[in-house]
User: Which sequence fits this backbone?
């Protein structure tokens, strides 16, 4: 300010605090003092959304805020890896459901019917005969069989005259995508019963002696999953020379099973980080904290190399010192990026969690940056476990825009998450899925909706769509690479970001249509989903991993020598212990009240963004 005295005029400078002074559109994102504090001190924040899908955020400025026009200031978008992870999850689960519906389920019921008929004649007094008779009745007529009725009720623990012991029928409660149709629910209950009710003392010889046609149906059922899930650690009953378990499996199983469940590197991580009294003393995860009976999804991230995740486990390691060696062993045995789509997905998560990917803000937002990347990967992993909940072995412990000085607003210049390696790996996943189908590994029947409102053959249409999404992921890989090199984006790059929501929504809905029996487009289920991955001694409490409603991620990024704030859609991840098994409908009822993990909660804003942005003048 200027003051006048007897000696004349003088200029006086008084410093004032002005957070976010170099952020050209801070006014669009500071709805509260908490927002200003997080954006200035942490470099960004998360906001809880009520949206059902991730892609909806990318329409928010155009539709929810009075349409995109030249007189309404709009907030620029941030294209996140989360959106592409969710696209691939939709494609993977769609392929999984179609394969199951067209190949696995028919082969399963054929196997059950033929095995029941054969055993009734060859071994009528065998417990296997009673078990398959109950399963056959589940499909053909439960009224004729009391055990079939208990299987379909899937509630509480009762004595099972077939199993010869108390059996928890509540374990048969359908979860994941199996709640979508009565046929899928019936298949889930029967599958789970077949693989959990038999007693370990029952002789397997009767099953080995089944006729060739029966075993052929069983092998078709099993083979329909193999290129979509991880290899098993258990040998298959009907193989003369079972395939060796993966190299990362430290303790393979020797007892043959009818259906070798998936045992991925994530299963090995969860298994190796909890207590097992039968293991050598050096591998028992115990210490001053007692016995570690429950793992965490953070264990999986740490095993795949995330030093941030390893840091979050510091307290656990102090309570259970052998946990440090277990994580070191796991990191040293990380498998190569080959194999089934499940294995490739797990490897790609390792890229998502790589500590070498840096934020453009340096140390300002280091904690937020690492927390976001960990949350994204864990939510994607929870989605993978949700899709494979039936065939996966559950681990068990023993015992804005720049400035407002212009009247006509420029189109908002957005940003892509500066992680080209993860965009590239997700693109590879789409390409691998397309290759799996084009090589004949996934035979699909039916017709898929096409862009011209007609229909195309499912096989060809899905290959084309998967390749298109792979190409789009690589577009954002290139944009992210430019950002990391400090290069200017082109007008075409900014247009890709601005209209990303169109691509995300359309591709997502096409992939989700695979879950429908008639392959028609429809409103997909909300994104919240849940899966059980661990228990304690074969019973509750269960470790549940879940995806909640989308988060908005507001993040500061470079902007022509200054900074701007951009917003993108991010996953929310949860894990907690539950005394009961929960399906998606149960989780949807309680997700709003479930607290965020402690390592994410500090970055959650209590306020949402106004729509449109409040003008600062």
Assistant:
């Amino acid at each position: 300010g200027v003051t006048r005295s007897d000696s004349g005029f003088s200029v006086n400078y008084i410093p004032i605090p002005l957070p976010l002074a170099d952020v050209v559109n801070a006014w669009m994102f500071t709805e509260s003092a908490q927002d200003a504090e997080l954006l200035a001190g942490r470099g960004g924040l998360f906001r809880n959304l009520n949206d059902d899908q991730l892609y909806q955020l990318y329409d928010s400025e155009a539709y929810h805020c009075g349409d995109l026009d030249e007189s309404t200031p709009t907030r620029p978008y941030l294209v996140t890896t989360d959106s592409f992870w969710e696209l691939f999850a939709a494609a993977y689960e769609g392929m999984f459901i179609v394969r199951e519906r067209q190949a696995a389920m028919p082969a399963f019921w054929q196997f059950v019917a033929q095995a029941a008929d054969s055993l009734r004649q060859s071994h009528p007094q065998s417990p296997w005969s009673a078990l398959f008779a109950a399963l056959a009745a589940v499909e053909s007529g439960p009224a004729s069989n009391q055990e079939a009725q208990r299987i379909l009720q899937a509630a509480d623990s009762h004595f099972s005259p077939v199993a010869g012991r108390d059996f928890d029928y509540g374990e048969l409660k359908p979860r994941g995508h199996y709640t979508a149709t009565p046929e899928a629910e019936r298949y889930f209950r029967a599958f789970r019963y077949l693989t959990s009710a038999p007693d370990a003392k029952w002789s397997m010889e009767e099953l080995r002696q089944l006729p060739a046609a029966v075993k052929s149906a069983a092998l078709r059922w099993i083979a329909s999953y193999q290129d979509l899930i991880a290899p098993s650690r258990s040998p298959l009953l009907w193989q003369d020379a079972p395939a060796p378990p993966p190299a990362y499996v430290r303790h393979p199983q020797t007892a043959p099973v009818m259906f070798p469940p998936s045992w991925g590197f994530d299963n090995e991580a969860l298994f190796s980080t909890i207590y097992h009294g039968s293991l050598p003393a050096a591998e028992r995860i115990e210490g001053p904290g007692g016995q570690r009976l429950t793992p965490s999804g953070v264990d999986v991230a740490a095993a795949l190399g995330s030093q941030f995740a390893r840091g979050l486990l510091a307290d656990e390691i102090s309570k259970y010192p052998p946990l440090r060696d277990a994580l070191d062993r796991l990191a040293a045995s990380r498998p190569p990026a080959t194999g089934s789509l499940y294995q490739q997905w797990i490897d790609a998560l390792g890229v998502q969690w790589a500590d070498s990917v840096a934020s453009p803000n340096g140390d300002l937002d280091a904690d937020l940056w690492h927390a976001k990347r960990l949350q994204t990967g864990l939510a994607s992993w929870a989605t993978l476990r949700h899709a494979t909940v039936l065939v996966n072995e559950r681990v068990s412990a023993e015992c804005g825009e720049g400035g407002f000085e212009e009247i006509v607003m420029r189109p908002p210049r957005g940003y892509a998450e500066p992680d080209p390696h993860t965009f590239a790996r997700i693109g590879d996943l789409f390409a691998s899925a397309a290759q799996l189908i084009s090589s004949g590994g996934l035979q699909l029947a039916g017709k898929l909706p096409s862009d011209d409102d007609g229909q195309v053959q499912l096989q060809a249409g899905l290959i084309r769509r998967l390749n298109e999404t792979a190409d789009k992921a690589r577009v954002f890989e290139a944009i992210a690479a430019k950002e990391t090199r400090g290069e200017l984006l082109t007008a075409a790059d900014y247009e890709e970001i601005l209209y990303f929501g169109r691509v995300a929504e359309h591709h997502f809905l096409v992939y989700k249509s695979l879950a429908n029996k008639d392959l028609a487009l429809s409103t997909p289920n909300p994104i919240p989903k849940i899966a059980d991955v661990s228990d304690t001694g074969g019973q509750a409490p269960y470790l549940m991993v879940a995806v909640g409603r989308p988060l908005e991620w507001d993040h500061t990024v470079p902007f022509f020598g200054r900074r701007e704030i951009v917003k993108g859609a991010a996953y929310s991840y949860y894990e907690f212990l539950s005394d009961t098994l929960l399906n998606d409908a149960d989780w949807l009822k309680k997700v709003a009240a479930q607290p965020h993990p402690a390592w994410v909660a500090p970055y959650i804003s209590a306020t949402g963004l106004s729509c449109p942005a409040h003008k600062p003048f």
In short: Residues 400-409 have pLDDT under 50 and may be disordered.
